[in-house]
Amino acid sequence: MHVKICGITNLPDALLAAQAGADFIGLIRAPSERAVAADVALEIINELRDTPTRPVLLFRDAPLEELAAACRDCHVAWVQLHGHESVNYLARLAAALPHVRIIKAWELTPSDSGDALIAYVREAGSTGLRIAAVILDAPKRGAHPGYDHLAAISRRCNEAWSNAESERPELWCAGGLTTVTLAAAVANGTYDGVDVARGVEQSAGRKDRGAVRQFIEIGKSL
Asked: What is the count of structural domains for the chain?
């Protein structure tokens, strides 16, 4: 199970996550109370260069030129898109930065069936575009769909994509996970990873050392 610690805003927290065994850390380059300045993001990325932990730059509906410049400046290989980016946008990003792997966050409401996500990934696959991972997430505002609902959608997506391995992205679970809820949240799903930000914080943008270590330990055991 891959573990991503998102909303990293400072070098000590980045090093903590890396030393605890995080596979990915998320650096938010979009309007957010957890946004990280460009120079701090670059410092973190440089410090993690020789570690197994992969930095991910997170954007939400950013102009493509702005996103591409940030990726080139920081020499990153992973980008997370957390807005309403179209498949065409992803294709243009892949053409501009062919070495960059794309993670697409997908916010789901309690009434979502997963049909739109399944179609989105299939459309990408039909153009030869591979999405590395899809994060099943709760809306930033509005009702949480519940982890049973997210798990059901994860199973449905994997079944829909089972005959087209070339287009199947990894599926990661998110949406307010904590050390208390993590194991139960993923128990009935078919997940390859988990993603957390707020659930391991002592305050916005500041991680709780014990919670980070515990979350990673639990995630790796699942």
From this structure: 1
For residue 127, pLDDT beyond 90: no
Angle at 195 between CA 189 and CA 198, to 5 degrees: 125
Tokens of 94: 């892949």
- Cβ-proximal residues to 140 (8 Å cutoff; 6+ apart), any chain: 107
Q: For position 164, what pLDDT does the model report?
A: 63
Burial of 28 (0-12, 13-18, 19+ CB in 10 A): buried
- Number of helices (H), then strands (E), belonging to the chain: the values are 8, 10
**What is the domain-level CATH number for residue 107?**
3.20.20.70
Helix, strand, coil percentages in the chain from 3-state DSSP, rounded to 5? 40, 20, 40
- List the single range of 19-23, 56-60, 137-141, 146-150 with lowest mean pLDDT: 137-141
CA atoms within 13 A on the CB side of 75: 8
Grouping H, G, I as helix, E, B as strand and the rest as coil, residue 24 is strand
> Above 60 in pLDDT, residue 33?
yes
Q: Is the pTM of this model over 0.85?
A: yes
The secondary element (H helix, E strand) that includes residue 156 is: helix 147-161
* Structural domain for 154, as ranges: 2-221
CA distance 208 to 124: 38
